[in-house]
Amino acid sequence: MSALFFPPLFFNHCMSMKFIVNFLLSTSLLFQGGNVFAQPYAYITNQLDNTVSVLDTATQQVIKTIAITGKPVGVAINHQQQQVYISTPEGQGFSVIDIKTLEKINQVKVGGASVGIATSPDGKRIMVADWYENTVSIFNSQSLQLEQKITVGQSPSGLYVSPDSQWLYVANRMDDTVSQIKLSTGRIWNTTKVGAHPFGILLNKKGDTLYTANVESNDISILKTDNLKRVARVKVGERPYALALALNESLLFVTNQDDSSVSVIDTQAFKELKKIEVGDKPEGISTSLDGRYVYVANWFDGTVSVIDAKTLTVINTITTGEGSRAFGDFIN
Description:
This protein is about 5% helix and about 50% strand. It has helices at about 10-15, 15-30, and strands at about 40-45, 50-55, 60-65, 75-80, 85-90, 95-100, 105-110, 115-120, 125-130, 135-140, 145-150, 155-160, 165-170, 175-180, 185-195, 200-205, 210-215, 220-225, 230-235, 240-245, 250-255, 260-265, 270-275, 280-285, 295-300, 305-310, 315-320, 325-330. It starts with 7 loop residues before the first helix and ends with a strand. The model is unreliable at about 1-35 (pLDDT under 50).
């Protein structure tokens, strides 16, 4: 990396030692090992060709394709460890990608068929849902060793961890329920019914509101996390799959697999505002760091649709790989 240059005038009029130290510290966060690891990248799992496409959201281009065997599906990003975790149902576990090098560095066995995957915001744990064994396995993110395995409902899919890293929420698809787990004890604290066959699951930034995408009842459930009490259900399109919040969480975006659309919901009025046509069989969905752009992985098209959350229009379509799914929070 070339040396940082400050013009004399900048030093003479603006600089103090405290400012210099703070500037250099903040700038150092952008660089590790010669790579800009804080780049806004999206990691798109392509299940049918056993790859992950790394999409630079600034340039809207795929910059690298990483081979991941085992039919990759789920994505979770650990900012503290600078790693991306990719669930591999046919690999019976998950792969680990180094964000700095964009290389696969490890493969971890779980057992059964891992689909949903998440990491705690504090970076200490990795959670993996086993579709067939009806369990959630919790791994230490530094050692990649199994810490505990928790039996949940049938066919656990979507996972989400609270902002304080204290609670894990699990969508149990075949039970039509959501489980709330206290991570310090591994105890299931609460389980509640939602719509038919919940799959994707999402928490807001405060951690007080939970959303589930209910595949068979074609709606979403909205619950408060203090008691998992349902406050609303909103009809969307055919076979909703996953969810993302945008524009300071004022809007909720939901992928509808069977009508190739994304529903836009007002999070205050609990009302669908619009359906946006995207690619064929949309599945995974995630939002850019500024909350402005929503990225949708289209399974049948092998593309990613980019939606402007302000105009509610598709502004770009990017070719990724065969069978793009990207189930989880896939933008770092």
